[in-house]
Amino acid sequence: MLYFVARRLVSALSVVLATLIATFALFFIAPTDPAGAICGERNCTQQRYNEIKENLHLDRPKVQQFAEYTAGIFTGRDFTTSGVKQHCAAPCLGFSFKNDRPVTDMLKDRFPVTLSLVFGYAVIVLTVGVFVGSMAAKRRGTLGDRALMTSTLVVSSVPYYIVALMVALYLTVLYPILPRGSWTPLLENPAQWFAGLLTPWLVLGAYNCTSYARYSRGSMVETLNEDFIRTARAKGLSDRKVTYKHALRSGLIPVVTIFGLDVAGSLAGAIFTERIFDLPGLGVLVLDSLNSYDLPVIMGTVLVASVIIVAMNFLVDVGYSVIDPRVRLT
Amino acid sequence: MSTPAPEENRKDSMAENAATPADATAAVKRGPSVATRERRQGSINPSGETPYLVVQDLTVKFPTVDGVVSAVNGLSYSVPLGRTLAIVGESGSGKSVSSMAVMGLHDRKRTRITGSISLGGDEIVGLSEHDLMKIRGDAVSMVFQDPQSSLHPLYTIGNQLVEAYRVHHHVSKDAAKKRALEMLDLVGIPNPVRRFAQYPHEFSGGMRQRAMIAMSLINDPKLVIADEPTTALDVTVQAQILDLLNNLQKEFGSAIVLITHDLGVVAEMADDVLVMYAGRCVEYGTAEDVLAHPRMPYTWGLLESIPTVSAASERLRPIKGLPPSLLNLPSGCSFNPRCPYKDRVKGERCLTELPELLPVDGAGAHTSRCHLHDKASIYEAEVAPRLG
Predict the structure, then answer these.
(1) Which domain covers residue B171, as residue numbers?
(2) Residue B347, exposed/middle/buried by CB under 10 A (0-12, 13-18, 19+)?
(3) What is the pLDDT of residues B346-359, one digit of tens each?
(4) Is residue B24 part of a domain?
């Protein structure tokens, strides 16, 4: 087991390193002009442009820039803006000159928002989505099953941002049945934290429940036809035990894979939800930085997102081996 | 031996002494030919012992979009404690479907079951799911064909055995574990303590089937249904598993219904044999009667299609054709499209009239379903020499 974890850990780290190189190449070796972006189009004199380049170390060789960037992640760096020396503490992911702040600090502000959103979302899809799917699988072929599956298909064929916008408009603004989306840190006021996130949770959760219901239905239908399920019934186990102990455990395996990737993707930025429900999360941060061409922020976010995705994949692998003893040996 | 089933006793005595006035009245009330009908349907065990499992006139139908699949049509048999009944037939003959019905394992929404299945006198057709649950795994248990897929891959063997025991016994986990280890030891699994904590994929095929048998016997069932228990195993392991089942039966005294298409297994294990074709019993009797004096062309065909080592150079003689579609059975005898002897029956009776299950020698417990008049002489003169 330890060997298994160690091996996966090594492969996860190499993926992160590769992403680091690729991201850096994308933004600093590709024909982008970070200094020009910061300098702006008006009032940009050659002297100021050169100054920015020097402050950002953009005039140095690319390899050295990369070494400095990477070293900064572990040791921190110093930057000079407008003659003021700024310290960017480790893990330093660069410095946003637009906002005059280290990227790490900005990410630290935003991450709890996205994490809270994804947390509630995960709870909803894993409970409601999987439960609905299992129920449908047990009643496969019946009218209820077909109605449910058709309606999930209908819901998922409407683009998500339309659904989210409509809910935001009709249910929180015109007919304020649900609280409007807003962000309050959990430790500051838990009740408000919950109220502000409730609507986004419900919308994001309900919409994606449809695909989770379909995944888990398919997987459960397959599992319920397995011989070992017949054995479980032949033992005299109750229907509930057969479904939720014997079938669900193996039926969940494919769902766990999708869930891991899905959560990783959402953590990296649930852009529509955050935008529509006014949550200052990572997705909105990326969007804003793209609009303002704030390269260090974009790069930092991409890097963090890749680490999240790799970490989630790693967790899925570990989760597999916890669920399925046969995986441990391979 | 369990207490005799009262219902069966009455039927037995009625069949035997239908002439006494009291029984005659009862017989009149229940229709004119109850006694003969029941004898004809073979509900009285060929051994004459009081049966534990009595299946009478069982039909299992599956309504589908294409029509109703008649998987079992009017099947009757019985098994006393301590005896083994082998149900033989090709795939799709209804042997598994009928035994699943005994376990109450069919999806009730998709299945129509009529007739009667009684366990020690208690009727189980029509029982609620809740009541069936109490019987499954306790009074009746099942050993499945493929232990690889029939054991849950994600739980340890020990966990699955303990669960099987605790469903029907309210005991602590430790007590159940003790019982499970006992059972693993009993079925000949070496080092049970270590094996208890292992997963099915860490077992060999034979060991897995032993574990499966341990699990099915853990509650000391009165009836064990073994659905092709050796089909998925190595030939060398098959004999060991059959020996094990034989020995355990002696120890536990349970009735066994053995479903198989392997007549070698039948010869080794069975006391009684029931040959099924297209959902019907076509021949039924003691193993000696059916294997040594078969009286139905389908049984002959099964016997002829067994490969023998001595006749290795000869070609196998398979039964020509395929089993009929259960959606649309042939008229008359279901076996007529494949029967090489149907021309010897006068008129086209084989094509028009379903033969009844009748005693082969006019009386007695060995019955077969065939219009042929001179079954005995055809067998002795034509079939037996080919069997060598």
Answers:
(1) 148-220
(2) exposed
(3) 888 899 999 999 99
(4) no
